[in-house]
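Standup notes
- HV: blocked on the assembly model, inputs below
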Amino acid sequence: MSEFQSQAQVQRVRRRVSRPWLSPLNRRRWQNFKANRRGYWSLWIFLVLFILSLFAEFIANDKPLIASYNGEILFPVVVDYPEEKFGGFLAVTDYRDPFIQEEINSNGWMIWPPIRYSYRTVNSEIPEAAPAKPSWLYTQEERCGRYPLGVDDPNCTVGNWNWLGTDDQARDVLSRVIYGFRISVLFGLILTGASAVIGVASGAVQGYFGGWTDLIFQRFIEIWTSIPVLYLILIIAAVLPPGFWILLGIMLLFSWVAFVGVVRAEFLRARNFEYVSAARALGVPNRTIMFRHLLPNAMVATLTFLPFILNGSITTLTSLDFLGFGLPPGSPSLGELLRQGQRNLNAPWLGVAGFLSLSIMLSLLIFIGEAVRDAFDPRKTFR
Amino acid sequence: MSQALLSIRDLSVAFAQGGEETLAVDHISFDIAPGETVALVGESGSGKSVTALSVLKLLPYPAASHPSGEIFYEGRNLLTTDETALRQVRGNRISMIFQEPMTSLNPLHTIEKQVGEILKLHRGMGEKAAKARTLELLHQVGIQEPEKRLDAFPHQLSGGQRQRVMIAMALANEPDLLIADEPTTALDVTVQAQILELLGRLRRERDMSMLFITHDLGVVRRVADRVCVMTDGKIVERGATKEIFSNPQHAYTRHLLAAEPKGEPPQANLSAERVMEGQDIRVWFPIKKGFLRRTVDHVKGVDGVDVTVRAGQTLGVVGESGSGKTTLGLALSRMISSRGEIRFDGQRIDTRSFSDMRPLRRQIQIVFQDPFGSLSPRMSVAEIIQEGLEIHEPQLSPEERDRMVVDVLGEVGIDPEARFRYPHEFSGGQRQRIAIARAMVLKPRFVMLDEPTSALDMSVQAQVVDLLRDLQKRYDLAYLFISHDLKVIRALANEVVVMRSGKVVEAGTADQIFHNPETDYTRALIAAAFDLAAVPGGVVSE
C-alpha cells in the first residue's frame, strides 16, 4: 500500500468514527442525574435564580436602567453621572430625589428596574416607623400617605413597593435578599472552588507519594484541624477589617482540609492499579500520571462532596454575619437579615424572609448534591 | 435412568438493565442423579454460573427473572417455593462453594466461629458438640493440625487452606448436592490438584452429587461423570465425559478442546545476544518492629537470583504464588528497587535513578496480568497506545502517531477503526491485545510478560500465545515470561527458571526441565499442571 493510500485510509477511518461530545460514561452519569427528577429540577431552579441574581443591579436598583435627558441617552445603572448634569450639586446623582426625577422626565424619559431600591437604599416614604410591613398589607392611601402628592404622586407606583417590607433601617428586604443571595452563593462557590484546588492538590501529593510525605502532612493536618476555627475568625476579625476577601481567606485556611481525606484515600488506592504501573513502565512522569490517570478517579469523590461543602461554606458565612463578625456593616447578607428578624420580633417578615431564602437555597443545593451522588454511583441501576 | 436428585427443566434467566432484557440462560434442561457429578463447561459469559446460582435462588432478584422453566429438587419446584422453605434447602441439602476463597469467608471471624455457626444454626448443636464436629470436618478436608487452626482468621491461611475451610463449611450439614462454582480457578495449579483430589474423595465417601462449574476442560476430565457444554446461555452438547472428549460432536466443543496453547517455542540459541542480565538479584522487604521501627528481619522476596534473557528467546519463570517471580520481573525492569547487578544491552542499569531510566523505558516494556485493570477506563484505545509515543517520540505529528497506532493495532489483530472506543467495550482477550499493542508500539527489545494469559479463557489464551510468538519472531524480542501455568510456558519458553520462596530451584532449557526434571518440586509442578495430580509428602505448599 502506498503512502498516499494509507493516509487516505486513516483519513477515512477518522471521519467515520467521530467521537461524541460526552464519553459514554459521562452520558450515563448525565442520564442518572436526570433520572433524579428532584435534583434535576433543583439544578434548573437554582441556575435560574443564580443567574438572575448575578444581574441584581438590573433588577433591584435605585438608579434607572436607561434615561434620556436633553436628547442624550444615559445609562445610570452602569455609569455614575454627577448631579450637576441635571442641575443638582451632589457628586453622585440621587435619582430617587423628586427634583431630579422631574428634571429628567420633563426633558426626556427614564426606565426603572422592576424594584426601585438597591440593598442600601433607605426608603424615606414608608407609611410607618421602620421596619415597615410589606406594601401589599397597606391600603392605597396608607401606602402613598408620605408622598408629597398622596395617591396621585407619580412615585407611588408598584416599582416603589416593598414586596417583603423593610428592615429596621427602612431598607427594602426583597432587594437585600436578592443581593444577599448573590453574595452568599458567590462566596460559597469561590471558597469551595479554591479549597477544592488546594485540598485536591495536597491530597494527591500525599496519596501518590505516601511514606514520609504522607506521614508529615497528615500530622500537620491533625494539628491544623484542632484549631477552633470560629474563635480564630473572631480574633482575626477584631484585628483586620472584615471584608469579603479577608473572610474568604481566613475560611480558606481551614476549609481545604475537608477534601484531603477522600482524595488521599483515592490516590493511595489507585496508585497501585495496573494501568498506573503500566504508565510508569512507559516512562510517564509522575505529574502526568497524577493528572491523567489518578485525578479522574479522585474527581468522582470530590464532585460528590462539592455541593455539601458549598452548603457548609454558605452556612458558615451566614452564621458569622448573624453574630456580627462577618461582612462589613451595611452589606446585604442573609445572616444580617436573620439577626434583624431576631431583634425585631414584632416584624415577622424579616425572619420569615431570611429563613425562607436560606432554607430554599440550601435545600436546592442538597437536592442537587443528592443527584450528583446518584450520577456518580456506579452501582446505581434503575428498574 | 434412576430418579434424578435435581432436575432442571427448560430454565431461562433474564436480566433487566436500563429497560432492556437480556437473556443470560436460554431454555436449558439437565438432570443430576444421586451420586453423580455433572460439569457445566463454558467460557466466561456463557451463563454457567447464573444457572448454578438460580438453583438456590441467589440471583439479584428482581433485576433477574425466570421467564420460563422449573427446577425440581426431590420433586419440589425450587423456583416457586417460598423463602422459608428454601432456607431449609440452602446450605442444608444443597451447599455451594465459590471461586474466591479470599472473599467468601468473613475476615472478622475465626474459622471455628464460621464453621460452628452453621452447625449451631442448622443442627441446633451446643457449643461443645459444634467444636468437636468442626474439628472433625477440618480434619476431613485435610487441614493439618486442625486444633491450632480453630482460632485462626481467614487472612492467616493460604488460599488452598481457605478453600478447604469453605468446603468444610459446605459439608457441615452433609448435603446431598454440592454446587462448586469454579472452586479451583483462583488457586495455584499444585493446590488445584490437591483440592480436586479432596473433592473427589469426599464425594466418594459420602455418595454426594456434585454440580461442577468450570471453564477448564482438564478439570472436567478429571472430576465429572457427565458434561454439559454451554455457550451463549444454551447447552450445545451433553454426554458422558469420555464420549465428549473422544468424540465431540458440536463445533464449539471441538473448538474448546482444541484450545490448549500449542506450538513450539523457538530453538534455544545460547549464542544469541544477551539483552537483559541480572546477577545475584535480591529484593528484601524489611520487617520493622518496635517503637523506633528498627529493621529486625527481612522478607526475602527475591534472594540471589541470576537470569539471562537473550534476543529472540523466551525465559520462562515458573513457580507457585508467592515464589517471587513477579518481584523478579519488576526488579529487572527497574520498577522496584533491588540489589545486584542488572545489565541491559551491556550497560548497567541498576544504578540509574527513576528519571535516568526514562530514555530506556521504551526498550523495556511490561504486559500485565489483568487486562481489565491495566487499561485506564477513561482513555480511548488510541490514547492508551499513544501515551508512550508522546513521551518517547514527541517530535511526531498527530497524523504520524495515529498511523503508528493503526499499524500496531493491525499487527495485534484489532480492527483499527475501533481505536476511538473505550476499553470496557472490548472482551478480555481483545484488551490483552490492546495492552500488548501499547508495549509493541514503542518497538521494545525486552518485554516482561507477567502472567498475560492467566486471566483469559482457554481458547483466548492460545490465540494470545500465538500472537506473542509471532511478534517475537518478527521483531527478535526478548521475553521474560512469568507464569504459574506450565502449559503456557511449554508453548512459549525455551529456557525455564523454576522459583520457590525467592530462590531458583532449577534452571535450564525447556527440554531439560520438562523431560528430565531434577528436583521433586519441579516434578510436582509438572504433575499438577499436566495430569492434575497431587503429589503427597509436602513437596509443594498446601
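- HV (later): unblocked. Chain B touches chain A at residues 16-18, 62-63, 333, 335, 355, 357-359, 361-362, 364-366, 368-370, 373-380, 387-388, 391-392, 399, 402-403, 406, 416-417, 419-420, 422, 435, 438, 442 (CB under 8 Å). Residues 189-206 of chain B form the longest helix (18 residues).
- Next: hand off to the docking folks.
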